[in-house]
Write a structure and sequence with these properties.
Elements: H1 2-23, E1 27-28, E2 34-39, E3 51-60, E4 65-68, H2 71-76, H3 82-86, E5 93-96, H4 105-112, E6 119-124, E7 144-153
Antiparallel strand pairs: 1-2, 2-6, 3-4, 3-5, 3-7, 6-7
């Protein structure tokens, strides 16, 4: 347990450096979402209503990870859960590119700015995330950061 906590603390320090670096390179979109393209993809740009496959890493601005569906990132951050792996819950997740999708506004805006193969960093201000209400494990008025990779169009 102590080893896991040390791994998580070390990872948070490294993640904070990454976040600060990416933040210094972001451009602010009209919605207030901040974006930095890590790797530009070669694939198609999804249209509204298209389903895509997404790898995500979610971090608080202090570098602590709060969720990821990338098993390598989970292992690096000391948050890998074998039961989640056994249930097939790691790996790209199907999401719909739509203003009506049931996800936070910042995530919808982020997806709308990606094409297949893109990997990008997003800074989501609290009002585009969970706002004043917060959610399980995320305090009210918390800004979030994500690294999103659109791996493919969904089958």
């Amino acid at each position: 347990r102590q080893e896991r906590e040390e791994k998580m603390a070390d990872a948070a320090v490294n993640n904070k450096v990454m976040i600060d670096d990416y933040l210094s390179k972001t451009k602010t979109l009209d919605s207030g979402l901040k974006m930095y393209m890590i790797n530009e993809g070669e694939g198609p740009k999804p249209k509204q209503g298209d389903e895509v496959m997404i790898l995500y890493e979610g971090y608080f601005v202090d570098g602590k990870i709060f969720d990821t569906n990338n098993p390598e990132v989970a292992k690096e951050n000391g948050v890998f859960i074998q039961q989640r792996e056994d249930a097939g819950m790691y790996g790209p997740m199907k999401m719909t590119v739509s203003p009506d999708a049931s996800m936070i506004q910042g995530f919808k805006d982020a997806l709308a700015n990606l094409k297949v193969g893109d990997k990008a960093f997003f800074y989501i201000p609290s009002h585009l995330a969970y706002g004043e209400r917060g959610t399980r494990g995320i305090a009210p008025n918390t800004d979030l950061t994500f690294v999103l990779e659109m791996t493919s169009m969904a089958e």
